Amino acid sequence: MQKNSINKLSELAIPFGSTGRFYKEKKTNLRNDFQRDRDRIIHSTAFRRLKHKTQVFVNTSGDHFRTRITHSLEVSQIARTLSKFFNLNEDLSETLSLAHDLGHTPFGHAGEEALNHCMSKYGGFDHNIQTIRIVTILENRYYNFNGLNLSFETLDGLVKHNGPVRDINKFNKILGKNFFKNKINFSRNTSLEAQIASISDDIAYNSHDLEDGLKSNLFKLNDLKNIPILNKIVLKHKKMLKKNSIDLVVRQIIREIINEMVSDVIKTTQNNIKLNKIRILKDIYELDKNVVSFSKNMKVFDLKIKRFLKEKMYFHKSVNTKTNYGRNIIKSLFFKIKKSPKKYININKYKNSNLERIICDYIAGMTDRYAINLYNKIK
Fold this sequence. Notes:
Elements: H1 33-42, H2 45-49, H3 68-85, H4 90-99, H5 108-118, H6 127-138, H7 152-159, H8 169-175, H9 192-215, H10 230-238, H11 246-275, H12 281-286, H13 296-314, H14 317-339, H15 355-364, H16 368-378
């Protein structure tokens, strides 16, 4: 028997039955609409490729650093925990968490910057919009439609991963005008499930990037002492170094950071629901700010972690050397492929896309190692 037939959802949750998809499909008794969406994401080619795409460290740097797929799984775990606490639609939160990074290029944000530069005259590149292209156009798994034909609620959450969209010009340039046929309200707030997926993304990459940075010796535990909240956690666990390995102590610190951030989100969200007198789903949509959020103190903590990681990790010489290498590979591949595209891409299978967008889709879908191998082959 399905879980949704046993547990009653909160009045603030997205119901298990979707309002629809672009292409009508028969319902199934085995899974609800969002479980079907989740399974389509997991079985997609784009999801499997995340295994070999950079999170921070280029995929060839080591076997134990996070990649896009492990990050997505960790985001999903946190999102399910939060959704379950609030008795929301866990399946939708999980789906959004697993899908949110599908559009990432090889070599992480460096690759995205390079591809956006290459596409500057042709509408640009944005990994969030690329995710939409993947799930609506590029995945090819069904006879009757392109893409994965995900529910409108899932598409809404992916479109608004960073909140309501105030300027749809970039969407229009990359996807085409009225691509969503008025099924997505860009300016309206998004569901609590989508808000949870978004903040779970922040929690996951802050905490796990700290762990990877410590593991790679880009910084030490003592370097964390000036960050509020974190300094207390570090001091508490440093005492355990006498009897335990540094790796174990770091893991315990990361666990506690995640617990602190999740607990803060729960308390703050409860307060926001009460303060804003939110009683039904419509109240969420009409609010001009997120209900799911950090407290003021945790926002300071979040900002300081981001600044610390930017200074000590993302801009570290050893990381920059490899990401710059990746950036150059992306640019080189774009212009080399453009000279003789049919040599690399089956152009005929693409419809309603200009040559540059076809090349962009091809490169964005590459893994780190595929891009490196192709670059070495044709340079």
